[in-house]
Backbone:
């Protein structure tokens, strides 16, 4: 393979002739893309243009996936931005071994990597604390799909970790659920939550694409948001938070900042190939809107 970089075990050597293109490795299309994911592509492209770089978008979950291999072959790009990072990510390992410049949007499980990410552990804990401050004591966590979680995606694992920490620290009752990335999955998920524990009065959700379904399921169950039931998002794109009714209390995804930082870090790495890895961990705050309110007991909520 001609990557334009030295073999593993040697110092990375930048190509002499730049392509003026960056690769962006997006998740494969076997699950529904969320609006947030699509927004990231646009922001990265805009940030790259400010450096007179184009962006070549491709898919690839594993290092052996043909689209990922084609991106590496033939000096098509000067560096790569990886999305949807796993705790153990073969793409990260392979690029690190090659000395190929890349930046991850997400926190890999290895030390010597360049990345920008949100503190999903803190986001999970903050959501629990917000709901506890409103008097909620029985809270459900709506995660991404089981397939997404079992594959090792770091956001799903770290978000759950933060939720569990918050529940334990405050002595609350909590239970986690998997949910697909669509409204129908959200509606089915809230039905399971209320069936398993009717005393549940709030959910913290990482499943942005299922929020409409969560609302619809609560309405079907006779629960009014936020009078009878509160919903808070660990993270949500600005395009979602104000378009659902009631407006979603959530941590707004700083998409512009993450896209800009990912490109800036990659430009820095291209300029100084021997520089030590840099990481940026962002901790945005919850924006309070209309979907959370003081707790009513589950029995009161039915009347």
Residues:
């Amino acid at each position: 393979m001609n990557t334009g970089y030295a073999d593993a075990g040697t110092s990375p050597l930048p190509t002499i002739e730049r392509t003026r293109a960056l690769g962006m490795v997006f998740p494969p299309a076997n699950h529904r893309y969320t609006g947030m994911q699509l927004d990231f592509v646009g922001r990265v492209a805009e940030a790259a243009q400010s450096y007179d770089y184009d962006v070549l978008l491709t898919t690839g979950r594993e290092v052996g996936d043909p689209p990922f291999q084609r991106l590496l072959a033939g000096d098509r790009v000067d560096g790569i931005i990886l999305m949807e990072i796993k705790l153990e990510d073969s793409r990260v390992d392979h690029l690190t071994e090659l000395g190929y410049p890349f930046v991850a949007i997400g926190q890999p499980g290895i030390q010597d990597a360049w990345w920008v990410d949100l503190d999903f552990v803190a986001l999970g804990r903050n959501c629990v604390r917000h709901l506890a401050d409103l008097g909620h004591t029985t809270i459900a966590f709506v995660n991404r799909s089981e397939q997404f979680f079992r594959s090792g995606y770091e956001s799903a694992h770290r978000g759950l970790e933060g939720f569990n920490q918050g529940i334990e620290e405050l002595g609350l009752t909590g239970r986690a659920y998997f949910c697909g990335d669509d409204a129908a999955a959200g509606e089915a998920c809230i039905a399971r939550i209320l069936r398993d524990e009717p005393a549940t009065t709030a959910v913290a959700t990482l499943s942005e694409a299922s929020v409409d379904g969560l609302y619809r399921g609560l309405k079907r169950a006779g629960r009014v948001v936020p009078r009878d039931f509160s919903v808070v998002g660990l993270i949500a794109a600005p395009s979602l938070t104000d378009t659902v009714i009631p407006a979603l209390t959530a941590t707004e995804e700083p998409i512009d900042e993450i896209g800009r930082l990912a490109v800036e870090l990659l430009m820095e790495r291209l300029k100084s190939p021997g520089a030590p890895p840099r990481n940026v961990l962002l901790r945005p705050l919850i924006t309070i809107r209309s979907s959370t309110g003081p707790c009513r007991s589950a029995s009161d909520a039915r009347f």
In short: Residues 1-16 have pLDDT under 50 and may be disordered.
